[in-house]
Specification:
Layout: H1 5-16, H2 26-43, E1 44-45, E2 61-62, H3 79-85, H4 95-112, H5 132-142, H6 146-164, E3 174-176, E4 179-180, H7 189-195, E5 211-212, H8 214-233, H9 237-258, E6 259-260, E7 265-266, E8 269-270, E9 275-276, H10 286-290, H11 295-303, E10 309-310, E11 313-314, E12 338-340, H12 341-353, H13 357-378, E13 384-386, H14 406-419
Antiparallel strand pairs: 1-2, 3-4, 5-8, 6-7, 8-9, 10-11, 12-13
Length: 426
């Protein structure tokens, strides 16, 4: 009687007390990695001059996808996508390219006084989750240059001051006890939600302007500690202490307003009603990623993984909301049962930062397995996955589901580097 290779693998995993994801090795992932390596050529664009609404940029960059459904595709550069898309390229071979991607973002900030959602003139009314200082510090580690660091950090400080802590139009984001919200120059809830990158989600109940979100403010805490670190590198200890004080103040405010000891998670805060939101989402791990949680909070956050963890990885929100089933409502894709590459990366890095290496590897391997199974069956990577039922398509959003896909490819490669390379157990 013939026995399928899949059944043999499952049996071997059971005997060893492991999952199939645990048994993934270099041989299994190599075809997918080769596909990704070759696919970057398709996702690389270079447009040095303005072309109608497309903004010219000085260096080549990556787009999220080129094979969208219904003729929906990209040739512009996106802000937070760019951070995640370079995660498999933080090495000497790709250092110049990664630095060029960052320089494009700095150029956009200097020209438009905002890092836009994407390099289109019609996207300059809003931004996306801010990762500028994180990219700067990662590039500095690849290419140590204090003169360059001082210039880059100065531009990031302009973004912090003018955009993320602005108190009036066109950047009315800092609204409550020193905390900031997502915004759009048109002051519309749905467009502010688009700035969050979670377009669309159940987190804000279609009232994004009323919330100071946990992920955004954790990112701004990260800016403040990055400014402190850069100040120390540049020899200004006084400035470093000032930025560290700002960071500690933000942490204290976030803990008081957003942290729930009972639930073991952070909630977005509805400042208009002065109460916490009710949706538990993976945004709760941004403070852990940023290094702003205590060891006691970290332990609770690790226990809270069970709220999200499914066969294919982590769901964006812990449960499906009743509103998701109401006919005629706006489709939400940043919610249960969907999982997303950037959120898996944030969570895995958060776990590693606090020494929960086994949990980090378990989550990373589940995500790798879900991605790989889909690739082996369909020959493609997706923008998002149904992690509850990985064999099924993900829940659709307000725009057609995309294949390709930049940040999925990058996080897959990064997880292979971290958990497959030199650790082949098969």
């Amino acid at each position: 009687m013939k026995v399928s290779a899949r059944k043999l693998i499952k049996h071997a995993a059971e005997v060893l007390g492991m999952t199939e994801a645990d048994l993934l090795g270099a041989k299994e992932v190599q075809p997918a990695r080769d596909f990704i390596d070759d696919y970057w050529k398709k996702l690389t664009c270079y447009h040095p001059k303005d072309d109608k609404t497309l903004v010219g940029l000085p260096y080549p960059y990556l787009v999220p996808s080129v094979e969208g459904a219904d003729h929906f595709s990209f040739n512009e550069m996106y802000y937070w996508d760019s951070y995640f898309m370079v995660q498999g390229m933080l090495d000497e071979e790709h250092a110049d390219f990664v630095k060029g991607v960052l320089e494009n973002l700095l150029t956009l900030m200097q020209r438009f006084h905002i890092v836009p959602n994407a390099s289109r003139t019609y996207f300059t009314g809003r931004s996306q989750p801010p990762f500028l200082t994180t990219m700067i510090m990662e590039v500095y580690k690849l290419r140590p240059d204090k003169v360059w660091l001082e210039k880059a950090i100065a531009i990031a400080k302009e973004e912090y001051d003018q955009v993320w802590t602005g108190t009036h139009q066109p950047n009315w984001r800092q609204v409550y006890r020193g905390l900031s919200r997502y915004y759009d120059v048109n002051a519309l809830h749905d467009l502010a939600e688009a700035e969050s990158g979670w377009d669309m989600t159940t987190r804000f109940g279609r009232k994004a302007l009323n919330y100071v979100p946990v992920d955004l403010n954790a990112l701004l805490y990260k800016y403040e500690v990055d400014f402190a670190e850069a100040s120390r590198i540049l020899g200004n200890e006084t400035m470093a202490k000032e930025w560290q004080t700002k960071a500690e103040k933000r942490k204290h405010t976030m803990d008081r307003l957003m942290w729930s000891n009972a639930f073991g998670v952070y909630f977005d805060y509805n400042y208009a009603k002065e109460r916490r939101g009710t949706v538990i989402s993976l945004a709760t791990y941004y403070p852990m990623w940023a290094g702003m949680v205590s060891r006691k909070q970290a332990k609770k956050l690790v226990k809270s993984l069970k709220k999200f963890e499914e066969r294919g990885g982590l769901t964006a929100t812990s449960v499906q909301q009743i509103s998701q089933f109401v006919p005629g409502t706006t489709p939400v894709q940043w919610a249960h049962p969907n999982g997303w590459a950037p959120l898996h990366f944030i969570v895995v890095e958060a776990l590693k930062r606090y020494g929960y290496d086994d949990d980090a590897e378990r989550i990373a391997r589940k995500w790798l397995k879900a991605n790989l199974d889909w690739f082996n069956k369909h020959g493609q990577f997706l923008e998002k996955y149904n992690v509850v039922n990985p064999d099924k398509k993900p829940t659709a959003g307000v725009y057609p589901s995309q294949i390709g896909f930049g940040w999925t490819n990058a996080v897959f490669e990064r997880f292979c580097q971290d958990y497959i390379d030199d650790r082949d157990i098969v």
